[in-house]
């Protein structure tokens, strides 16, 4: 496997996949670390590793940000922000895991009855390239706090980032086997899923990958958490502050060069303000700086791989060829020169059934759609098979919350772009997957919610009833 700099198209590094002997050793080490050590460590010791990790991330911020930019092309300012967010995540769980893992007590006729949250064991994560540190730490940190150990198959294009996570955690005091990066392909990942020592599987990726992982894990009755694709709607109501809404919609859509599951991909605007919004939105997109991601001034860098750029271009072409695919306002083509750059693109009047609306477009392409009224906006938002996040822009908060209750998504943000926050659960519905990451729910996903009933010994034994 090899990593390629998407700015230049040049190979950065080549790695040899782990052979059977290396995998056998690493799996055995992870199992032994969990079974004999990590699950039994006092919570305070586990959380100390997380605090140390935050400090090391802050110390190594520039080095790690540069690695992100080299391997997947994220603009350097955004790469540094990603490292900062990982540190914030570590500190959050260091401070709040004790409360998240506190047993839940129930009033029954028992002396005590409660649910405790015990670790499951090694958890296998299959992670993507677009947030190559954040998504790995988002998996690893809560699981390490809970007493699990981690196994990682990272995207091959960001192998260096996967190894860097392992290195940071080791430097923070996590013992060998606590977190292991496996250099493997997809076929071997299915074998890892089936290993009896692996107690759960989590994937962030496409819905196609999610179906494959769910099928493989289901054969072995393994718990899974799937954070899959999205085609998030951004609904702009007729009373919204259009300057604010347009600025936020552009920031959301072109974040990470349009390569985020929670980018605002479908911009649904009330008909009465549609033209005014387009004028503002277009001006904001025209002002974006496209170029070298190592330049501090760059807003939009390259796409992460050449094949990804080809896929985006194909989706744009098929949208414009669709009978109601809309009108191209900006961009719509790859940029000349080295690297995998695609012009920031705006298509207006996109039909809800055109490819730019029905598929997840993982690149800098905005689909603008007008809606006659609130009912139509909700119907368009819910017409997607995805249901990850949604944003609503309005000055009437009650109206916004009423609409939020009707949008089919795992998250709704009113007058804010959709984002992940360690304090709040993150995840979707429909073809965007199931389960939650972050906050207390995310920490408890891979724990055994164990019911405990305690009666005084003098009580008469009762019959067991399911």
Layout of strands and helices, then pairs:
Layout: E1 2-4, E2 11-14, H1 20-36, H2 43-59, H3 61-72, H4 76-100, E3 104-105, E4 112-119, E5 122-127, H5 134-146, E6 149-154, H6 159-171, E7 179-181, H7 186-194, E8 200-204, H8 207-219, E9 223-227, E10 232-236, H9 242-254, E11 264-270, H10 274-286, H11 306-321, E12 327-330, E13 345-348, H12 355-358, E14 365-371, H13 374-382, E15 386-387, E16 389-393, H14 397-404, E17 411-414, E18 429-430, E19 433-434, H15 439-444, E20 447-454
Parallel strand pairs: 5-6, 5-8, 6-7, 8-9, 10-11, 10-16, 11-14, 13-14, 16-17
Antiparallel strand pairs: 1-2, 3-4, 4-20, 9-19, 12-13, 15-18
What do you see in this structure?
There is one protein chain. The chain has 466 residues and is an alpha/beta fold. Strand 3 and strand 4 form a beta hairpin. A 7-stranded mixed beta sheet has the order 12-13-14-11-10-16-17, sandwiched between helices. Strands 7-6-5-8-9-19 form a 6-stranded mixed beta sheet, sandwiched between helices. It folds into 2 domains: 2-228 and 432-452, Aldehyde Dehydrogenase, Chain A, domain 1, CATH 3.40.605; 232-414, Aldehyde Dehydrogenase, Chain A, domain 2 (3-Layer(aba) Sandwich), CATH 3.40.309. Helix 2 (43-59) packs antiparallel against helix 4 and helix 3 (61-72) runs antiparallel to helix 6 (159-171). Helix content is 40%, strand content 20%. It has helices at 20-36, 43-59, 61-72, 76-100, 134-146, 159-171, 186-194, 207-219, 242-254, 274-286, 306-321, 355-358, 374-382, 397-404, 439-444; strands spanning 2-4, 11-14, 104-105, 112-119, 122-127, 149-154, 179-181, 200-204, 223-227, 232-236, 264-270, 327-330, 345-348, 365-371, 386-387, 389-393, 411-414, 429-430, 433-434, 447-454.
């Amino acid at each position: 496997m090899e990593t390629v700099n998407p700015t230049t198209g040049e190979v950065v590094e080549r790695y040899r996949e782990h052979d059977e002997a290396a995998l056998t050793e690493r799996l055995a080490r992870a199992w032994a670390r969990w079974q004999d050590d990590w699950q039994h460590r006092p919570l305070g010791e586990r959380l100390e590793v997380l605090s140390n990790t935050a400090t090391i991330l802050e110390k190594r911020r520039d080095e790690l940000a540069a690695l992100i930019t080299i391997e997947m092309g994220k603009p350097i300012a955004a790469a540094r922000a990603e490292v900062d967010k990982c540190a914030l995540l570590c500190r959050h769980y260091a401070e709040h895991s004790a409360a998240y893992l506190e047993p839940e007590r129930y009033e029954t006729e028992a002396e005590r009855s409660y649910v405790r949250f015990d670790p499951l064991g090694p958890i296998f994560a299959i992670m993507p390239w677009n947030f190559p540190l954040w998504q790995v730490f988002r998996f690893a940190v809560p699981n390490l706090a809970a007493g699990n150990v981690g196994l990682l198959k990272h995207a091959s294009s960001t192998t260096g980032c996967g190894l860097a996570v392992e290195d940071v955690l080791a430097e923070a005091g996590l013992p060998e086997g606590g977190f292991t990066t496996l250099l493997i392909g997809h076929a071997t990942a299915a074998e890892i899923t089936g290993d009896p020592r692996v107690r759960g599987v989590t994937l962030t990726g496409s819905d196609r990958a999610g179906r494959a992982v769910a099928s493989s894990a289901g054969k072995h009755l393994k718990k899974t958490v799937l954070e899959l694709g999205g085609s998030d709607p951004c609904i702009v109501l007729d009373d919204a502050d259009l300057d604010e809404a347009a600025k936020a919609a552009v920031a959301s859509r072109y974040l990470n060069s349009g390569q985020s599951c929670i980018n605002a991909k479908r911009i649904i605007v009330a008909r009465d303000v549609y033209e005014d919004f387009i004028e503002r939105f277009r001006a904001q997109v025209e002002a974006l700086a496209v170029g070298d991601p190592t330049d501090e001034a760059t807003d939009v860098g390259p796409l992460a791989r050449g094949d990804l750029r080809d896929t985006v271009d194909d989706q744009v072409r098929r949208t414009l060829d669709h009978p109601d695919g809309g009108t191209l306002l900006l961009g719509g083509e790859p940029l000349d020169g080295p690297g995998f750059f695609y012009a920031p693109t705006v298509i207006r009047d996109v039909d809800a059934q055109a490819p730019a609306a029905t598929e997840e477009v993982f690149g800098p392409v905005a689909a603008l759609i007008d809606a006659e009224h609130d009912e139509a906006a909700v119907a368009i938002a819910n017409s997607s098979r995805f249901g990850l996040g949604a944003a609503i822009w309005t000055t009437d908060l009650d109206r916004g919350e009423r609409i939020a209750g009707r949008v089919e998504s795992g998250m709704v943000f009113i007058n804010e772009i959709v984002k992940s926050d360690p304090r709040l659960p993150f995840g979707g519905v429909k073809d965007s997957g199931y389960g939650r990451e972050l906050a207390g729910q995310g920490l408890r996903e891979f724990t055994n919610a164990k019911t405990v009933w305690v009666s005084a010994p003098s009580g008469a034994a009762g019959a067991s009833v399911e």
